[in-house]
Please model this.
Amino acid sequence: MNKKANMGERQMKTSVTKAVLAAALGAVLAPAGAFAAPAKADYPKEIGKGEGELNIVAWEGYAQDDWIKPFEQQSGCKVNRKYAGSSDEMVALMRSGGGGQYDLVSASGDATLRLIYGGDVQPIDVNLIPDYANFLDNLKSPPHNTVNGLHYGLSYEWGPNVLMWNADKITTPPDSWAAIYNDTHKGQITVPDNAIQIADAALYLMATKPELGIKDPYELTRAQLDAATKLLSDQRPLIKKYWALASDEIELFKNGDAIIGAAWPYQTNALRADNVNVMDTVPKEGATGWADSWMLASKSKHVMCAYQFMKYVSTHEVQAQQEIYFGETPANAKACDAMNALEAGSCSKYHLDAPASYFQQIHFWKTPLPDCGDGRKDCTSYGDWQKAWQKVKG
Amino acid sequence: MIGAGGRSNRLSALFWRQPMLALAGLALPPVLWLVLIYIAALAVLFVAAFWSVDDFTGEIVRTWTVRNFTELAASPTYRTIALRTIGMAALVTLTDAVLAFPVAYYMARVAGRRLRLVLITLVVLPLWSSYLARVYAWRLILAHDGALNWGLRALGLPAAEIGYTNWAMWIVFSYIWLPFMIMPVYAALERIPPSFFEASQDLGARGGRTLRRVVLPLAMPGLIAGSIFTFSLTLGDYITPVLVGGPGSDFIGNVVYSNVGVANNIPFAAAYATVPLVLMGLYLWLARRLGAFEVL
Model:
C-alpha cells in the first residue's frame, strides 16, 4: 500500500510527457504484468438458478460435445468454449479485458499459482460440490490450487510424467531415471523442452543426493537449483532432441531417433496404437506429474452456471468420459467403473485403482516461487528456472 | 482558374499553387501509418528493454535499469545463442548465393523463353506450400530411419546421423530461403545488356574474366538484395530451430519467445530483441551503400 502511494507521488513529479508515455506504454503492457493479491472468498450460499450462459477457457479436448451438450440441456447454461494452446495463453486469456470475460479455466499446475497470486481467480466452496468427497486424497487440497486453506481450484484430471522406452531396443526394463542421466543410451534420449524439467532433475537428486537437502522439487534454493542445472547440463550431450510438442516425441520414437525419454502416458498410447513397441513406468525415484484444476474467475458474471458446471464435471461419469477422450486420470476415485464400462481395463491402464503409495510418488507441477512455502523466502523463481533452463539448452 | 468547377477544382488549384501542401497530403497517411504501427512499436520495444520484472509478483517494474543488457553481455549462453544465430544467417546467405548464382544465370542468359518461364515457376512453386509442411518434410528426410538414410543404406553407404543437428538446420534454411536469393539475382543478371558481353569479348576477355569483371559486379546489387532476405529471414526465425534443430540449436527468436510466453519477462525479451534489430539496421545501411536497393 505504502509503496504504491509513494510511486504515485513520484509519478506526479515527473514531466508530463514522460507520464503520458509511461501511461501509454503501461496500457500496452499491463495485461501481461498485472499482479495483485489473491482474491478473497465470496461463496454463494447455494447453487441457484443459472444465468443462462457460461464462458470457459479450456484445453482442446476438455469441453467435448459428448458431455457439454447434456450439461447445457439440464442446466440451461449455454457453454461458450475458448480453447487455449498453452498455460501462458490461459493466463493471458483470464486477464484479458481486465478479467471477467471468462468464468472458468482448466488451468494446469504450472499456471494455477500465477492465476491465484494474480488475483485472477477466486476461492471455490467445495462443500457445494458433492463429488469433492470422492476425490483422491492428494488432489483435494494440493498446494498448486489451494493457498492458505482456500480452494482456488477444483482438481479435474491428472497424469504422471513417465519414463518411456522402446522395448525392442532396450530389453531390460529400466526402473530408474538414471537411464536418461548416464551414457548407456547416449544420443538416443529425449526429454521435454520445458523449464519445469528442472523439477525432474531435482526429483532424481532428491533420491540420489540426499546431502543437497531437497524436500520439494519445486522449491529449490540457489544451490539446489545449481545442482539440478549441473545434472541437466551433463545430460545435454546425451540428448538427441528436447521435444516441444507431444507429436515431436512420437515422431522421434517412430523414426528411431530416440529410444528412451521422459513422456506422458498419451505418447505411450499413441505410439502403441501405431505399432511401436514402447513401455512406460514411474521409476523408483518417483515422477513429476501434471494436474489440471477448474478455476473460477474473480470477476465471473455467471457464478451459478460455473458452480453447476464444476459440480457436473466432477461426477464420475463425466470424469470417465474425459479420461477416455484425452488419455489421463480422473481426480474422482469413484470413476473406475464408469471408465471400465467405456473401455475395458482402462481404470488400471491409467492407474486410478493403484494403491495410495502410487499417488504419493507423484509430485504435481506447481509454479516455482521465491516463497518456499515453509517460511523461507530464498527459493528460486520461475524466472530463475527459465534462465537456468536456457543455460542448459545453450 | 477558380470558377464553376466547385470544391474539387479549388482544391486542385490550391495544391497546384502550393506543391508542398500536395506532397504533405499525399505523404501524410503512409507516414502516420508508419509512425503509429512501426516506429511506435519499435519505441515501445526499446523502452521496455530498460524495465525489469519483479521476481515475486511478476509485475513489470517501470524504473530505468540497464540490468537486462548487462545480463545479456555477461552471460556466455546468450552470447553463444546470438553468435549461433548470426553465424547461421551468414552461412545460409553464403550457401544460397553460391547455389542461386548459376541457377539465376542459366535462367537469365541461357534458357529460352519457354524454359525460363518453367524455371521461374519451379523456383517460386515451393513458396505456395506451407512453410511448416516443407520443414516437416525435411525432418522426415533427415530422420534416423528417414529417406536419406534409407537411400544411403540402399547404396551400401554408412548412415548419416544429421537429423536434429545444426547441420539439419543449415540444410533446411538454405532450402527454404533459396527462392528469395534466386529471384533478385535473376533480375539483376537479366538487366545486363548483351552488348556488354560482346564488348568484353572484343576486348579479349575470356569467359572467366568476363564473369569476374563484368557479370559479378553487375550482379552484386542483386546478390546483396537477396542476402537481405536470406539473412533477415534466418535471423528472425524460431520455428525451424524448434522443429529440426537438436540440443543447442536455439536462436535469438527462441529466447525471445520463451521469455515473452513462458517466463513473462517482457523487458528481457525486448532487450534481446534489440540485437537483431541493430544488426539488421547496420546490414541495411551497408547494403544501401552497395547499391542493393536499385534492383528491388
